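Regression report. Comparing outputs from two consecutive submissions.

Submission 1:
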Amino acid sequence: MATAVVRYTAAALTDRGRKRPTNEDAFGFSVEHGVYVVCDGMGGAAAGEIASSIAVDEILRRLTAHREPEASLPEVAGKAVSAANEAVFTRAQRNQRLNGMGTTMVALVVEERRAWVLNVGDSRAYRMREGRFEQVTLDHSLVEEQVRMGRMSQSEALRSPLRNVITRALGTQNYVTADCFELEAEVGDVFMLCSDGLTRELSDEDIAAILKCNLGLEDRCARLIAAAKQAGGHDNITCLLVQAAG
């Protein structure tokens, strides 16, 4: 039996939300090269905005450049994340005003049916398949790590004053390791990359209900952001949707 060819379409939107004066999220993608990235910056003044933009630009630049035939895509993607970390860290070291800036990162890279998700921090990737909505990534945050160790319940994590503490980020140290998850895409899959401004406001059930709507990808992004803003909009909100089509 012939294997169905998988092609991808994508759309993304970002919004500063209702409480923040600026938007420190950034995203970028290239359907042609199969690269999709969302970053959520942190730092004083405009530092977070700078960190997230540097990281997105560097990852896209590396992954849309000519690749050596013998280099595997996950290997190249890992090196791109390391380069982005170095770029943010070096920029912060050169400018005292940017000292301590960093960014979370979640990326999806695809090669036909094969897909890899990489993440650092608490920006997340999900997959919707035949109505089932599942989180792919694991947060690098203090409370989520406590939950995984059984030291805190999920409800306690949601109420914790430490929920904003990130344990891993791009640019805050001279070296970082991204988690990497390998998946196989099927026709009809929808991948969602997002900043925590979306997942802090909406439950998985809320998000899944919107993703199931018979709408284009951009309209679903818009609905997700509108729902997050209506629920409070306490942070910047970014949503990037990628659909595998036949």
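Submission 2:
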Amino acid sequence: MNSKPLLALFTGILVHDHWKPYFKLGCLHALCNAHHLRELTFAYEQEGQAWAKNMLDLLDAILQAVDSQGGTLTVDQAGHYREQYRAVLAKAEQECPLPHEPEGTKRRGRIKRTKSRNLLENACAIMSRRPCAS
């Protein structure tokens, strides 16, 4: 990041793929939905994660609702979709739990997670501004 001083000076809205070093930059952040859709598709098709398909379907339903209403949702609709989003994440926590810490060994750092688990944790962070159980 230090080799790209232009990014350090950026003050607009940075659209990115949730790479943690980007969040150290002093600007507003927006996460790229094209990345999310690709990662959800991979999680469903390659890792068999049903929650990822549920999230894809929900995001598609939200997009259709927004498009059919000229670009906005009502407060009630937004609340309804937020509840559905949280319900998908709650089911995902059961389907894609945290990895277990190997017993009898001391490790430095966090235990490696699957791509699906990382995606789930990012989805939780987006919703609540903090990670899922970790």
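Expected: both submissions complete independently.
Actual: both completed, but the second showed a warning that disappeared on reload.
Relevant detail on submission 2: The first helix runs from residue 5 to 9.
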